[in-house]
Amino acid sequence: MEKILVGLKRVVDYNVRVRVKSDGSGVETDGVKMSINPFDEIALEEALRIKERGDAEEVIVVSIGTSEAQQQLRTGLAMGADRAILVESDEPVDTLSGAKIFKALVEREQPGLVLLGKQAIDNDNIQTGQMLAALWGRPQATFASGVALNGDKATVTREVDVGLELIEVDLPAVITVDLRLNEARYVKLPDIMKAKKKPLDTIPIAEFAVEPTSKLTDISYDSPEQRQKGIMVNDVAGLVAALKEKGLL
User: Fold this and answer.
1) Are strands 140-150 and 153-160 parallel, antiparallel or unpaired?
2) What is the per-residue pLDDT across 159-218, written as a single tens digit (0 to 9) for each?
3) What is the CATH number of the domain that holds 114?
4) Residue 231 belongs to some domain of the structure
5) How far from the centroid of its chain's Cα atoms is residue 205's Cα?
6) How many domains does the chain have?
7) Does residue 249 lie in a domain region?
8) Rounded to an integer, what distance in angstroms lies between the CA atom of residue 5 and that of residue 108?
9) pLDDT tens digits for 68-90?
10) Which structural domain range is residue 91 located in?
């Protein structure tokens, strides 16, 4: 195939302890380390491996967000992507609007495969890939822990509740990936320097005729309750008494 399109979302780094703003209006991001969504990073790694095997000619990374998302796109370019596209929006973009933007980019770039993370760790919606496949009218394979390409078909191992499921889809298709698919490569300094010379196109969201609005309204955010300390019991009778005291028996 000629092209693989990979989505990269800018999120709070998974190693950072998430803090709610003092006014409860959202999650604190000022001065917080931001990174590529971990599932998206694995999607990019798989695209790069497919290209290195000779099954694709170009890997394009895409992000939707503010100009700050260029940082994550540059990281994707340093990992090995050939070029990047930023759809710039100062307002948050809901899942359906994001899928519509990806659909427009698919029509523009005509990729043979779209790889996305199965979910983003900021909102856990698990919807973008499925919506894109529906809008595009192409097959989808979600929760992939194995991907093998054979001509115009892809064999995908899916992680499901009862174990693993093996399916075959026609290409072009949308595949969303799980954590067990691979381990993303480390970015080296020479690759970071090379990435600065790779093309990164910025497109205003207005070009896509998509309103960056959501039908959902966040009322407030709260931190989870602190976990209570455990207690030690001497025997089964003490355990039963403790459980009854907490109303669990």
Assistant:
1) antiparallel
2) 988 889 999 999 999 999 999 999 999 999 999 999 999 999 999 998 988 876 667 777
3) 3.40.50.620
4) no
5) 20
6) 1
7) no
8) 11
9) 999 999 999 999 999 999 999 98
10) 3-223
